[in-house]
Amino acid sequence: MNIAASDLTLEQKSHLVSGVGPWYTFGIPELDVEPVILSDGPHGLRYQGEGGENFGLTESAKSTCFPPAVAIGSSWDPSVAERVATAIGQEARALGVNIVLGPGVNIKRSPLCGRNFEYLSEDPLLSGVLGAAYVEAIQAEGVGCSVKHFAANNQEHDRMRVSSDVDERTLREIYFPAFERIVKEARPATLMCSYNRINGVFASENRWLLTDVLRGEWGFDGAVMSDWGAVHDNAAALSAGLDLEMPGTDGRTPPLIADAVRNGTLDEADLDVSVERILGLQAWRAEPSHAEIDVDAHHRLAREVAAECAVLLKNDGTLPLSATTKLAVIGEFARTPRFQGGGSSHVAVTRSESFLDALPELTDLDVAFAPGFDLDGSGDESALRDAAVELASDAEVAVIFAGLGESDESEGFDRTSIELPRAQVDLIRAVAAVAPRTVVVLSNGGVVSVEGWHDDVAAILEGFLLGQASGGAIADVVFGVVNPSGRLAETIPRRLADHPSTQNFPGERGHVVYGERLLVGYRALTTLDTPARYPFGHGLSYTTFELSDFTVEVTGADSAVAGVKVTNTGPREGAHVVQIYVDATSNGDIQRPARELRAFEKVTLGPGESTVVSLPLDRRAFAFWDIDESDWVVEAGSYIVQLGRDSETIVAEQPISLTGDGIVRELTLWSTLEEWLTHPVVGPVMLDEIDSDRLRYVAQPHILRGIGTLPMRKIADSLRDTVAPETFDALMARTRRDEVVAP
Ligand code: BGC
What we know:
single chain, 4 domains, Exo-alpha-(1->6)-L-arabinopyranosidase, alpha/beta, Glyco_hydro_3_N, GH, beta-glucosidase activity, hydrolase, binds beta-D-glucopyranose, 18% strand
């Protein structure tokens, strides 16, 4: 039966736009409208079935915990996102879950955000490409997803009330593009609006966000659901374009919605539109496949992809270890791995694998272990450290597992510092002082500082959070079964304060001002000339890559293509990530970051092998959001296309010239003298048509320098005895859009 809003009563419609319990939509079985079943994600299922609750207090079904977004981001590889999403899709089908709540593609504005482990990157392109790959793959399994949290939800502090005060250009260039790309390329079934306000208006009630931009401009044709508890005024939310309130309210809100229609606060046509969208979700309804999930195969997959996400930050040659290296393994996380974050994404795992569990596969020797610290701080810190130091002094290599504990970071709160726990820093320093060589393996969801001990150690492997097979994946990398190929999806700064967002994080009195605007992550550090400890895009390999024959070819008024030859010059197979940045700073009066990632591709090559990578740069690689035009604009001018090993290490660059959009700006009497003189239509004829010696005098470069910023009205005023106002009017008329013939 094909049901439409017009077949339903007002009561039925009011129920459809409100959930039932935490995980179901409303069903009308007599009309064949079945409940649609939702479950958290995104890196594994937190399926609770009927009777579940959304606070994580009751157990959920066992599922594979794949690497969380922080790790997927570091893979820089859409196929990693795809493989994970396909497997989660299969697990969802087996359980009868119709929509998975993820991926989370909010930008890591500050390293302090407690939920950074659930987000992909500080860069919108990387987040968008990986997010789109995830959505396409999971939806190909017949499982919808809910891309979250739309939008500008970049902190946990006060998340249900705070207003993210962000100017439009910053939203368009930094905080929207990942959502935009996913909507346009992958057509997600649903989006989840965020809790916060944007410039004072709750995301759930924000018509500009949910209707004008999302649907009007990007063409989103799915449903928008609220984050859990993000609706405060149902009528306002429905009118704005929010379709589904989650979770259900035990029947409290449907009568309010029906009343709002009756008393005219809510237009029934708006309700009907949302009802149609909720009915559209029936397309994702499927009975459980009851397919037998091969949990061993999924665990193996979790291990395989995790190994592709770990980032080798530093290595003096100590890694990879050999099976005969005499090791001391130190740190509680080697035995009790930290591999996922806390909160709504917490998965009840099918199993977990520690580094110690995996060791017998990889080393021929018995390995000594000392915990070095404990997770709750209840033990004797110095005794634990001393025991570890003693073990380390007798080994060839000490491998220390350090990082953040579950209680140090989670959904719900932000961190206040990026330091490792002090006991761990003391431990690393003490061990490094006695061990011939020390390797540090880090497990953390948000970035941690490596200052204070970085120079003491031989190698650092940043695992972030790698999912339930983290221990095996780390062992594979450490022993060289897998050649590391992860790259940082976020900057590791020397100091937290090197991120300009720090001065406006997490805000006060209900507002957080995004005063740093576009200067987020590496965009900030490269623009402000502040070296990172490890820049965005950094990551080492056990092999070496040569980059040669960098070419950039202009392919149109606003596009180009970059090419480079990559050769694996080392002894073993490995993967390199080609990174193309654009420096648009030499154009006009628009402030641009020093460089921005505009294309990337990960390539795997055997020893001695080469390939030529060709990366198209479309108009968005050069455009900025012009608030005057309310549109993307590519200015005419020169752009430098750069090949980076990371965001700080540019190995080749080439300037190109683009003709751009040829936008001719309208002149008014508030436009400055300089804007008039340099205007492409008026400039060349102005001094002839406004026949005035005074004007010719002030137009001389050395005079203009001082008074070029005068609005034309002041000049017109001073010439009023000799130049008729109509002369100015006539010139301005030639700049009106409908009059202009582009020069
Ligand atoms: C989180 C969402 C999550 C939802 C359901 C909310 O608190 O912000 O990301 O999907 O709960 O658990």
